[in-house]
Amino acid sequence: MRRALGLGLTCWIVLLALLPAVAGAHAVLDGTSPGRGAQLERAPGEVVLRFDEPVEIAFGAVRVYGQDGGRVDRGSATHPDGRGESVAVALRDGLGDGTYTATYRVVSGDSHPIAGGFVFSVGQGGAPPATVDELIDAADMGPVTDAGFGIVRVLSYLALALTVGGVAFALTVWRPLVPHRLEGRWPAANEAFARRASTLLLAGVGLGIATSAAGIVFQGAVAGGTAIWAAIDANVIGDVLETRFGTVWAERLLVYLMAGALLLHRPLRGLLFASDRRGGGEGALGVLAILLLALCLMPALAGHASTFDPGWLLIPASALHVLCMSIWVGGIAVLLLALPAATSQLEPGQRTVLLAGAVSRFSTVALLAVAGLVLGGVVQAVLELDALPDLTGTAFGRAILIKVGLLGGLIALGAWNRQRSRPRLAALADGGESPGVAGVVLRRSLRAEGVLMVAVLTVTAALVSYSPAAGAGGPFSASESLGPARLELTVDPARAGRNSVHLYLFDRRSGGQFDRTRELTVTARLPSEGIGPLTLEPRKAGPGHYVIRRADIAPPGEWRLDVDVRITAFDSFSTRVEVPIK
Q1: Would you report the helix, strand and coil content of the chain in percent, each value rounded to 5?
Q2: What percent of the chain has pLDDT over 90?
């Protein structure tokens, strides 16, 4: 068992290392007012940012810093005219000449935060006390918080699997198998299973409550750009609860609390595990079923499925996918952790009968769960990927491929058990023999499935963090450090064919336009197709501003733009920007 756990932990760490970093640009900044690097005669009354999709602003979204480093914005950020795509913040009256730095941190519709900044000047301007980079980095939550949130997501899926899958196993496998066996040591085996399975169910509920509460706090830290300890604050939590993510996760916590109360109800426990022949509990079971279905629906309501069209198809497909995955994963957990408590109470021949019956029934349930899981997954992939190359050309697509590979391994193990272990155990049961080697092989196979299940849940949690390819259309923007300059690059419309590429260079110290460039070159390549490097021709359009008006970038995929800037005969700097082209 320790070897299996060690292998599972190793697979988890390797998968986390192989998966790309969490994408941050789920919404894209389309434009600002004042414009980036604008030189104004007098101070504006407000700063406005325009995004390509609605964003949430519950976390002090826009801050503007003056020449002395102090805040010059007043009041809270708002949506002008009620339009979710625009965010505005008013500025104080009587602002004088100087360079002003505006930073933003907003939350996309899929609950992921995005951050950036720009500068503008009034009059002659001057050097600001802090650069955009420094101000953004100061508001970054750091890798520990990011990794912690990922672990919370994985554990939240595990909680769902233990709760939903445990109840499904009890109803579809255990109850049809055991109730009529009242002679000999069967009642003791039934009671032992009921105790262990009940513990698993309550552990799932407890984990669900804990991860729901932790997820709300982590979302406050990530969205607000603060440490996790700073997010444990009534005001921060209140802000999170005002968002769609916070509402759904708070509702999830309440549902777990209600499900836990029902699972402590004695008649329901007797109904689930056939330990009480007096009946009752049917009404509680109906309410529990509704609560568990609601839990399966909530990942879709808080994630990508609720932000893409057609929602009427994506949301049910996501719920079906989660439900079937939970039944499969939870069933494996029960076979591994609860069933041995029952078999330990039986004679060798009876043990084989129980193993054979449980494996046979769960094999049928798992087969149906796999069919539903594949159906839900295919529907989501078709709707959330624009084209087949997105599978290899985007982080979201590559995570899907990893998940498909892991699921393929799970399906292969399940098929092997169905074709080999099940017939062998059935033959031994008919002969009244001990499970022997067949039982050992089954246990090892189930442990291997458990390890792969943990890996699948890890990749599923990662998928939630990536922006679906179908949602990445429209202009693409990125910001990178380029020696003493800060590069802001925009590719419009970021689709296969002719694109306009704008490159803005800003001095990292002063925040103004960086116009000391002797030479700037841009090359493009598509590694997955072996295309490139292709030379693009930037033309200077103003101080620190370069334009490539007709950049032919095709076919679709994850393109790499290498930007090189030469400042003196001896000083040159380069950076690379990955641009998803649809």
Answers
A1: 55, 20, 25
A2: 23
476-581 has which fold? Immunoglobulin-like (2.60.40)
Equal CATH topology for 29-138 and 476-581: yes
- In CATH terms, is domain 29-138 a member of 2.60.40.1220? yes
* Per-residue pLDDT tens digits for 542-553: 778 888 988 889
Residue 267: per-residue pLDDT = 82
Q: Residue 39 in contact with residue 121, Cβ under 8 Å?
A: yes
Provide the pLDDT for residue 332. Answer: 92
Phi-psi category of residue 318: left, alpha or beta, with phi > 0 → left and psi -120 to 50 → alpha? alpha
Q: Are 377 and 564 in contact (CB under 8 A)?
A: no
Q: Is the pTM of this model over 0.70?
A: yes
Tell me what pLDDT residue 312 has: 79
Cis (ω within 30 of 0) for the bond into 475?
Answer: no
Nearest alpha carbon to residue 467 among 206, 173, 110: 110
- Residue 56's region, left for phi above 0, alpha for psi from -120 to 50, else beta, is beta
Q: In the chain, where are the structural domains located?
A: 29-138, 143-471, 476-581
The pLDDT, as a whole number, for residue 58 is 67
Alpha-carbon gap, residue 77 to 88, rounded angstroms:
5
CB 51 within 8 A of CB 71: no
User: Longest C-alpha distance within the chain, in Å?
Assistant: 95
Residues 244 and 134 sit within 8 Å (Cβ to Cβ)? no
Q: Supply the DSSP string of 552-569, one letter for each residue.
A: EE-SSEEEEEEEEEE-SS
3-class secondary structure, 196: helix
Long-range CB contacts (< 8 A, 24+ apart) of 265-271? 269/194, 269/198
Dump pLDDT digits (tens) for 242-301.
Answer: 788 888 999 999 999 999 999 988 888 878 886 555 556 788 889 999 999 999 999 888
Please state, rounded to an integer, the average pLDDT across all residues of the chain: 81
Higher confidence at residue 577 or residue 17?
A: 577
Cβ neighbours around 227 below 10 Å, total: 13
Nearest 5°: the CA angle 270, 276, 278 is 115
